[in-house]
Amino acid sequence: MDSPLSDRIGTMQYAPDTEAREKLRRVVIGAATLVAVLLLLPSTFTYVNPGYVGIVIHRAGGGVDPVPLGPGIHARIPFATGIEEYPVFLKTVVLTKNPTEGSPLNDEINVNSVEGQPISLDVSLSFQLEQSQTPKLYTTFRTDINQITHGFVKQTIRQALQEVVGTEPVADVIGPKKAEATNRVRALISQRLQPMGFDVRQFTINELRAPPAVMDAINQKNVMQQQALTAQNELQKNTFNAQGDSIKAAGRAKAITAEAEAQARANTLLAQSITPTLVQYQIANKWDGKLPTYSGGGTPMIQLPSKP
Questions:
Q1: pTM for this one?
Q2: Residue 229 belongs to a domain
Q3: Is there a domain that residue 247 lies in?
Q4: Which long-range contacts (CB under 8 A, 24 or more apart) does 249-258 make?
Q5: pLDDT beneath 70, residues of the chain
Q6: Cα–Cα distance measured from residue 166 to residue 113, given in angstroms and rounded to the nearest whole number
Q7: Looking at the structure, do residues 19 and 82 belong to the same domain, yes or no?
Q8: In terms of domains, do 227 and 159 share one?
Q9: pLDDT tens digit string along 92-124?
Q10: How far is CA 61 from CA 57, 64, 65, 299, in A?
């Protein structure tokens, strides 16, 4: 049986151990709390980059705030809300076969002409998202903007191209009707993307490719049309020159005829105006008062007009 002294000694040894363990426990709890705060602190704030808006997603219920966040720092509930950024600046999507443009994949658009000929197109689309429509856009697709543009937007472009190009001969789309077809496709794309918040600013067809045999036939046709046009222009030039020569010849003939007619009328008037009296008057008018001399001493005879 322990003595009272030994009990007191045991109690004194137990007290410092308990106090040390309590202090250690508080330190551990404080450190854990600090670590948790440091880990959770960044997730209590979010930063939206300039040129973007933040779509607030409520993970618990799956809802989306109808008003997006603007650029800057915003508070949020960690683990309960998520942020998806959408660009609201002008963005261009390039769909091409070239791996150095757009994406490294082959993003060319393939359609058929009215004859059933396959046509490959490299196109680009520039658009800007309407800020107020971005929550609706995310609610519809539940993905980032790159997935939307290379999915829904690309399919919209393909459908519009098929509707327009599919009604035209391949030679017309590649040649004289390319600009018209481009404008029609852009109108269709704008009409279908606008309800989703896309403001289409520009659409271009950068390149069209048809089978080599088709391209050779089109090139030969273009050469023949150019030759025919050159021949037609030469014919018109020659015709114009011939007409000009004819006009000049007709003018010269008309001038000669007019001159001859004028001379004839003048001769007729002159003949009608010559009378003996006029002749005598002209002689008398030009006489200087001296009688001409003749060999043999004769005097010239002058017939004066008789009195009436």
A1: 0.62
A2: yes
A3: no
A4: none
A5: 1-16, 31, 33-43, 221-225, 240-246, 248-250, 253, 255, 259, 262-263, 265-308
A6: 4
A7: no
A8: no
A9: 999 999 888 878 889 999 999 998 899 999 999
A10: 9, 9, 12, 151
| Cα 127 from Cα 86, distance rounded (Å) | 13
Nearest to 84 by CA among 140, 125, 8: 140
d(C-alpha 308, C-alpha 289), whole Å: 24
Q: Alpha-carbon distance 170 to 217, whole Å?
A: 11
3-state secondary structure (DSSP) of residue 79: coil
Same domain, 192 and 219: no
Q: Please return the burial class of 252, using the count of CB atoms within 10 Å of its CB with bins 0-12, 13-18 and 19+.
A: exposed
Task: Count Cα neighbours of 284 within 13 Å in the Cβ-side half-sphere.
Answer: 10
SS3 91: strand
- Domain containing 112 equals 91-210
Residue 64 shares a structural domain with residue 162: no
Task: Identify whether 221 is part of a domain.
Answer: yes
Q: Beta-strand (E) ranges in the chain?
A: 45-48, 52-58, 72-75, 81-87, 91-95, 109-112, 118-129, 198-209
φ/ψ (deg, to 5) at 127 = -150, 165
